[in-house]
Every structure is written in structure tokens, then in C-alpha cells.
Amino acid sequence: MAAPGSDPPLVRLDGISKHFGEGATRVDALRDVSLEVFPRQVVALLGPSGSGKTTLLNIIGCILDPSAGAMELDGELVLHEGQWQRRDLRRLRLEKIGFIFQFHNLLPFLDATDNVAIVLQLAGADRGTARRRAGDLLDDLEIGHRKHAMPAKLSGGEAQRVAIARALANSPRIILADEPTAALDSKRAGIVMDLLRNLAVERDAAIIAVTHDEKIFDRFDRIFHLRDGQLADT
Amino acid sequence: MNLAYRDIRHKLGRFLLTCVGLGLLLGVVLAMIGIYRGLVVDALTIARAPAVDLWVVEANTRGPFAEASRIPGDLREAVARIAGVTAAGSITYQTVEAEHQGGKLRLYVIGYEPTRPGGPPEIAEGRDIARSHYEMAADRSSGLTLGERIRLGRRTFTVVGLTRNQVNSGGDPAVYIPLADAQKLQFELAPPAARVQLARGTGSASLNTVNAVVARLHPNASPDATAATIRRWKHLAAITQDEQELILSRSLVDRARRQIGLFTSLLLVVSAVIIALIIYTMTMEKLKQIATLKLIGAPDRTIIGMIVQQAMALGLIGFAIGATLIIGIKDYFPRRVVLEPDNVAVLGVIVFVVCLLSSGLGVRAALRVDPATALGG
Which residue in B110, B90, B64 sits closest to B239, CA to CA? Predict the structure, then answer.
């Protein structure tokens, strides 16, 4: 587990709010949420449906505009008083954030290696280098023997490992996971969470996961509870 | 890596099947364009066959194709003596149904004077008519073969030569026979009818009647001036070759031409809508993948490139299939299908533009996809 205070936070949210609509139809999805996540931490966002956890994940992932607040990612102030400080949020995501999805979301027309290599190529690597590094990543995640398999031929656990490799391809220090174990049985869910924990330690990264999966609660360093758009307790 | 190619390769069978479907549709469009062009070419073929500059016909008519025309056969000698005329020939046209191989065969019979203007432009097989009676040069599309004998009216003709692509505006194959035989075929009464005419005291009409006299002019002679000279004879009308072609293309086949033209335009619109729907559907099926691509940092140009390249590939392969199909089977159509390279090229450009515009719909949908939709179930 990371020691808060010894390193600057990788993710720092300060007074993040988000509302949809105005007047009578206004819905406050998030209200004044502040939190910090440090390197080597694996944290969970927990809460009932509609509590705002996916909204929060989308804002941290720079895919949803907040209404107010500030955010720092990996030491860079990316949001100030509700305004993005960078124009190219796509590039920001590519450089700083890796995503892991509930249903792995691998591109069905690329094999396992290319599903990882594409992220490297988007960042500017040539095809040969990208495939080589993708192969190494898959080997590290002990899925190298399936590197030429198409996603449809992979089991759920294998596909999720490939998805994790893709999330790690550009060596981001922030990894956002949306129900990463929801499609897995408890044994595989445990393996994936152990894998994420090891990666967080090895890569000095922070992992933020939205989950309802009670069987993996004990694998998190911290759990943030959200209720009606507010951080209820930690 | 080329995402468009990889996606196509992943679902190759389905993509090719879509291309084949589109190819069939574009093949129909090409066939209609070919039929449209064929109709015009067919209409002009017979008028162009004698390679003449002037048509002399009955006064106040636009004969001999658009309207009936009858003039005395010996007028040819008078026309031949006009200044600027190098050669003239009398000519008759009529449609005949003959018995052939147990069925009816519609033939467009052209009577002409061998050695004078009015005969077939070329003999593809066999020889031209050499005897003064009962020989025939027939178009291959009639199904007649060299040496075959066929009865027209009360006389039997032997096929001595075969022509190519000589059909009238209705698609009936042309046969060329000596003028005297054609005049008897058209104007000679059957014996009982001739007897009735004799009994009525009207006598038999002169057989030396033709439908038109055609004339070739000296290169320095003006067709319009020569036509004006002939029109001074009040019982005749003169039509230049250009005017004759205009009459045929604008008047004789105008309704059919417009009908096919309109139908072709409708087919093009239907094809455009179908192409747009196919490309839009292909994009909509990939929205989750597009959202994922956006989320992991793919720029818009990568996504636009994938959609546009797939649309282009679909159009190109579909067009190639359609063009190959129609070029391969066009000669088996009952009527001529004329596909000039410029027709094919124009449709190719239209398909290209349609694909580009249609991919715009898909691109619009793709660019509107929220990357957040990649998250969640």
C-alpha cells in the first residue's frame, strides 16, 4: 500500500461538481467532491446506482466536462475553476490515462497484439516497435501464448488481461477501471485484482476502479463511498 | 495499421456479399445506361448505314423513318443530275414478318440498288448482293445463316451475306434485298386484289415507287444549299443527314429514350440511398468500437479515415463487380447494350461521389459518439 504524504498525489480533485440541466430539471450528479489518490494505490469508487461514480470516473478520464472544480493529474493542473487547461484532451488521455472496461472492449478485428499495439501507434510508435512492445507486455501479463488470437477466441479472463495490457501500453500512471471484474468469476476476479495491484506497485501507478463486486473489496487500499453525488465516507 | 482494411478482413464474407449486392444494383444501372445508349445508337444505325448527305422524300413529310413517304423511283436520275451530287440511290423500307424455323421472324427489309448508295455499310461474312433478284444480305441478329433460304411475300430469297449491328429503332434486324424485289414486296398486289382493282377499272399502280432517294454530295457542296435546291420542286422534301439524325433521336425514340432515362435516374437515386444506408449501418454497428477508439486516444482523422476508406472500398469493389458483370453479359441482351468507356467512367465518378457523401453520414454519426459510451455495459 502507498504511503500518502511520501509522494505527491497522482490524482487530486478539489471541489468537483457536475450538474445536468437547469432550473426545475437540474440534476446535481456530483457536489463538491474532493479526493486524492497516491502512487501505488488501488482505490474503489462505490455507491448505489445514480450516486455519481461513473460521472466522477468520466471527469477523471477527461471525457466529461465538470461544472466546477479543479483537477490535477500526475502533477499537471488540467482543470481549473471548471475549465480545462488543455485543448487536446485526447492527447492528455493518451499520455496519462489507461482505461480498463467492464467487457474488455477489445477491437474485434485486431488480434491480441494489435489491440495493444494500436495504443502505441496512436502515440507515434512505428508498427514494428509497437508490436514488439505489445508482445513484451502480453508476455509480462502471462498471456503471450495468445498474442495472435482474435478477441472472439479469448476467454473472459484472457480478454481482460489483454485489455489491461492495452491500458498499460503507454505506461500511464493513472489507470481507470470500470467494473473490471464484473464479467469474471471470483477466482479470475481475484487474479485480475492481484495483477492490478502488482502493476500499481511495479509502475508507481494509481488505479481507480468503479465496482459493485463485493468479493474484491478487500483488494483495495481505499474505498470512496458516493451517495447522491457527494463523497459520504472513505 | 489500416483499421478499415483490418475490419474488412475480419468480416470479409459479409463485406464481399454486400459488395456483390451493390455490384448487382450498379450492374442494373449500367445496363440501363447501356440500353439507353443502345436505343439511340440503334435508331441512328439505319440512317447512317448508307453514308449519305441528303434524303429526298415526299413533300410535307419527315420520312422515311418518322413518317411514311412515297416518291417515284425514277426521281433518282433527276437528283443525281443536281450540282454537287456525286451519287444517288433509290431506297425502300418496310417491316415484314416471315416464317423462320417454325416461328415468326420480324425483319426490317431495305431495298436498294446495288452499286448505288443505300446498301449495307459492310459485309461481315459472305458477299454483297451480286444478282439482280432474290439475294439477301441479313443482319446476324436475325439468326439467318449464309446459304439459308427464306420466303418474303411471294418470293424466296437466299442469304448471301451477313451484316453486323444493323437493326432499326425498334430493334428488328435489317435485311437488304435488291430494290426491284423490295418494290414488288411492298407495292405489288396479291393476284386476287390485282384482279379486283382491274375490275374496278383503276388499273395497277406503278411499282416504280420508292420511300426515299438518298444522295452523296461532293465534299465542297453544301448539304443545306443542295436541300434548298431540291425543295424548289414542290412535290419533294429534302432532309440533310444531320436533320435526319435529329428527327430519329428527338422524335422517333424520344419517348422511349426519356422513359429509360428517367428510370435510369431513379435507379441512380435508389442506388445512392442504398449505398448511404449500407455505409451508415456499417458505422452504426461499430459505434462501441469507435467510442473505445476515441477513449484510448484515437484522433478523429483515424476514425474518419476508417469510415471513408471502407465506403470507398465498398463502392469500388461493387462498381467493379457491376461493370464486369454487365460487360460480360451485355451481348446476350435481346437489344443492343452500348457501354462506352465514358459512360462507365461517369457512373464510376457518380459512385465515388455518392460513397463520399454517404460516408459523410457515417462520419457525422461517428464524430458525435461520446467516448464515455465505451464505459459501462
Answer: B64
Q: Which of A64, A109, A117 sits opposite B10 (nearest CB)?
A: A109
* Domains in chain A: boundaries: 11-233
**Cell 435546291, located at residue:** B229
Q: Quote the CA–CA distance of A104 and A108 in Å, as a whole number.
A: 11
CATH number (3.30.70.3460, 3.40.50.300, 3.40.50.720, 3.40.50.11270) of A11-233 reads 3.40.50.300
Residues on A contacting B at a C-beta cutoff of 8 Å: 54, 57-58, 61, 63-64, 90-91, 93-94, 99, 101-103, 105, 107-110, 114, 117-119, 121-123, 127, 150, 166, 178-179, 182
Report residue B304 as a C-alpha cell: 474518419
Q: Which three cell numbers stand for residue B63?
A: 420520312
Give how many domains chain B has, as a whole number: 2
What torsion do the CA atoms of A163, A165, A168, A171 make, to the nearest 10 degrees?
-150
pTM > 0.80: yes or no: no
Residues on chain A touching B375 (C-beta within 8 angstroms): 54, 57-58, 61, 99, 101-102, 178
Segment A188-221, tens digit of pLDDT: 788 888 888 888 888 899 999 988 877 788 888 9
CB B362 within 8 A of CB B311: yes
Full strand arrangement of the beta sheet holding A222-227: A97-100, A174-178, A206-210, A42-46, A222-227, A230-233
Give tens-digit pLDDT for B235-267.
889 999 999 998 888 777 778 878 888 988 898
